[in-house]
Amino acid sequence: MNRLIIDHSGAVTIPAAVLDKLGLQPDDAVNVETNGTELVLRKAIPAAVPSLQQSIARKNLTVGMQFIKGIGPKLAELLAKRDIRTVEDALFCLPHRYEDRRSLVPIRQLKPGVSQVFQGTVMSANGVTTKGGRKVFEVLVQDDSGSMLLKWFHANAVWMQRTWKVGRRGVFTGEVTSFGFQREVHHPDVEWLEEGADVQAVMAADPVNFGRIVPVYPLTEGLHQKSMRKVMRQVVDGFLDNVENVLPTSLLSPHGYLPLREALGQVHLPPAEAQLADLNEGRTPAHRSLAFDEFFYWELGQALKKRGIALEEGIAFQVTHRYTKELARLLPFQLTAAQRRVLAEIKEDMMAPHPMHRLVQGDVGSGKTLVALMAALVAVENGYQVAIMAPTEILAEQHWHNIHHWCEQLGVSVVLLTAGLKGAAKKEALAQVADGRAAIVIGTHAVIQDKVEFQRLGLGIVDEQHRFGVLQRGILKKKGTNPDILVMTATPIPRTLAMTLFGDLSLSVIDELPPGRTPIDTKIYFESRRNQVYDLIRSEVAQERQVYVIYPLVEESEKSDLKAASQMAEHLQLEIFPGLRVGLLHGRLKPEEKEAVMASFKNRELDILVATTVIEVGIDVPNATLMVIEHSERFGLSQLHQLRGRVGRGAHRSRCILLTPGKLSEDGERRLRVMESTSDGFRIAEADLEIRGPGDFLGTRQSGMPDFRVASILRDGLILEQARQAACGLLEHDGALASSEGQRIKAELIRRWGTRLELAGVA
Ligand code: ADP
Ligand code: MG
């Protein structure tokens, strides 16, 4: 019989008779294809197959998982669902927890709260239904020291009954739960023992699953822990030696970090002395070393970028004070000390002959707009144009209103570009920008990016509010010849996070509010007290004040939220406050319509403004003193803080009510209580970050947040700092990464982050 044998690595064994017929040599590589009914053998292009075989032989880390012995297409597909496609992916897929399976524990001595291994004989096994109607499968197992109740919820009773036969012996792994005297183990792992088998011998024969602290990997449906553990063990045994230790010990040893290879080995196969708790919290030397490795490359990339910018030629502005002094004279107030300090930092950057790249952080109402305007005027004094980009139309308009007001008195021309601008008006506005008649140009990110040509752009100001985009800065830069860039954000970003995200920017913080602001009194109200909230609204309006009622906008269903907001407006107008004037503002209105609604609220033609979160950005109505936020539990804390900043802008005492349905999770309530207890944006941001994690905090994907595989910005702040210092230290010695060590590090950096950091061009 001429039967082919194909193994999982794709190698084919072909009988000599077949070889002959096909005119193949024994060493020829062969492609095996099927046309549906039969297999077709073709001589492969020599380079293709051998390179894969060579890769496997050389243990190249980019080898696909399906080529590893024992991994068939089905398993490879399951692994791919967890983003494990190559050996390298697998090596960096870390256990999400660990179990201590170093020794068998007698049933009597099992401690609650930790996973342990015990053995026993099945004494009884029954499906039962609890008083509450829950179906539970219960098994009693026993060893020499005592017995233990095992329980499964939602198990298939027929299948369980077949497996869990009385008298059968097994090794079980699980965590004891105790209810008073009752101790039980839910959903344990089981390893069945053959009749008469010696437990210790069985365990010794399976070093992957027993006799050590074993890793527990994240799984996906259909992928079992045991097969995953086996796969991972194979990868570690077969490929770990080929992980290159790129970072030299001179960078690692000052902080006691391990080389990458050792660290990776230890997280998959913890050494005998490892502490279970440290492993589970990701605090072992191995985990910390991996975090350092990860942070190091990221910080190195950021530092290189920053150095690259610092070396670029830019505009050396001169501070002539022509307009800035005049503006300071016109203002009805003094700049705060923080505003002055930040302005000085900006001016210093602007005077330097290299492009500025500076981030200004300032809480809502801290007066960023004025600082931005002052910086803009410095550029204008030097005969340059300024672009101010805002995330939304409403905010762009608001900036225009504020800035135009002062610039008119100074004789500086300001142009507002909106998406709604049409025909001749649009042509004229663009012409003014192109020929330099417009000194300051304000618009949304989109508008300025798309259509605008500047005559002489010298400064780009990006108002990010709480959105972060690395891209926008880049595009803006290309609108001029290395203009200065100033990024403003109203989200107080905790320091570690700012360092990570904006390592290539210098940071200024306006950490002081203008005097005379009264803190906003914030209270959580549960749904049951809604009528009291309505009374509060009435009494506020009776004192001639105005009120915001905010509706959340959940991304998936903008439509239905809109419906909720407009229904609410209608309900409030018709049924609750028939005598008051209720308006509605949402993102789907045309710009003119939004403008009209805002104008009538500002002019006190409306008492209550029902709005979606479009209100969040920059609206300034000092007479509005009460904000009611519906479904406040759906918002991020930083967002609530932004929203709340819309009141308390005048001299009157202001209030913010966080309405929420009756039930909140413990975390949910803890989160909202933070809003009651502080008005410090930084503290709120840190609490938010702590409770929700960095991804959620920044609103995920769009945020520009690097997705670290091991490192956690929350847990590993100190390591991040060390990594940053190590990266900067390296560049001080070897700024071009030209040494042989530097070259290897650079190659690895480009491999890991090249596209992300736009680093390919870094010299
Ligand atoms: P931000 O953009 O930081 O939220 P704004 O720039 O909109 O804050 O400023 C909020 C309000 O405070 C504006 O009405 C502004 O005119 C006013 N303001 C800014 N700086 C000062 C200051 N130094 N003293 C008093 N009021 C100020
Ligand atoms: Mg503002």
Describe the model:
By secondary structure, this protein is an alpha/beta fold. 41% of the residues lie in helices and 19% in strands. It has 27 helices and 25 strands. A seven-stranded parallel beta sheet has the order 15-16-14-17-18-13-19, with helices on both faces. Strands 20-25-24-21-23-22 form a six-stranded parallel beta sheet, sandwiched between helices. Strands 6-7-8-10-9 form a five-stranded mixed barrel. Helix 11 crosses helix 26, helix 11 (285-311) packs across helix 27 (740-757) and helix 13 (337-351) packs parallel to helix 14. The longest helix is centred in the middle third of the chain and has 27 residues, at 285-311. The radius of gyration is 33 Å and the shape is globular. The relative contact order is 0.08.
What is the global morphology? globular
Q: N- to C-terminal separation?
A: 62 Å
Helix proportion range: 40-55%
Task: Note the beta-strand portion.
Answer: 15-25%
- Largest sheet composition: 7 strands, parallel
Bound heterogens, unique: adenosine-5'-diphosphate, magnesium ion
Low-confidence stretches: 45-50, 759-763
Number of strands: 25
Q: Helix count, per DSSP?
A: 27
The radius of gyration is 33 Å
The strand line-up of the biggest sheet is 15-16-14-17-18-13-19
What integer is the average pLDDT? 83
| Structural class determined from secondary elements | alpha/beta
